[in-house]
């Protein structure tokens, strides 16, 4: 499965990269912010996109809107990663087009299983 992980915090990207590099069935691409993610989304397709919500503009919500406006990503599974745990936040993100909301902090070692379950590969 091909996955794009977007987070502006280098240490988080590095932890996720370490956790996913041992997974033979996961091809992960990493972006350090919204602008980079949007450029990648214009030229590549993914099975799943994981977006940090709170980044410098363009933030995760803007990347989500952009992804959903691109024909290649209308049905891509998009997971928003956020420390905000309110039901209201989750509903807002899903209304914008997110398939799921993953609350931070999450365990990087469990991410591969989460992705397989999300994509029905388990």
TrEMBL record:
A Pfam family of this chain: Response_reg
Domain Response regulatory: 2-119
Residues the record lists as 4-aspartylphosphate modifications: 52
Keyword Metal-binding on entry: no
Keywords: Phosphoprotein
Classification via SUPFAM superfamilies: CheY-like (SSF52172)
Any single biological process term in GO: phosphorelay signal transduction system
Domain of life per record: Bacteria
InterPro entries in the cross-refs: Bact_response_regulator (IPR050595), CheY-like_superfamily (IPR011006), Sig_transdc_resp-reg_receiver (IPR001789)
PANTHER family membership: RESPONSE REGULATORY DOMAIN-CONTAINING PROTEIN, STRESS RESPONSE REGULATOR PROTEIN 1
The protein's name in its UniProt record: Response regulator receiver domain-containing protein
Organism: Celeribacter halophilus
């Amino acid at each position: 499965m091909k996955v794009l992980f977007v987070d502006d915090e280098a240490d988080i990207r590095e932890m996720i990269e370490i956790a996913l590099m041992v997974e033979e069935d996961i091809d992960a691409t990493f972006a350090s912010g919204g602008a980079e993610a949007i450029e990648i989304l214009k030229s590549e397709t993914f099975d799943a996109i994981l977006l940090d919500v709170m980044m410098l503009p363009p933030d995760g919500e803007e990347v989500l809107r952009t992804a959903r406006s691109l024909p290649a990503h209308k049905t891509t599974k998009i997971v928003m990663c956020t420390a905000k745990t309110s039901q209201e936040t989750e509903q807002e993100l899903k209304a914008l087009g997110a398939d799921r909301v993953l609350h931070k902090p999450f365990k990087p070692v469990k991410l591969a299983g989460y992705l397989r379950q999300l994509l029905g590969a388990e």
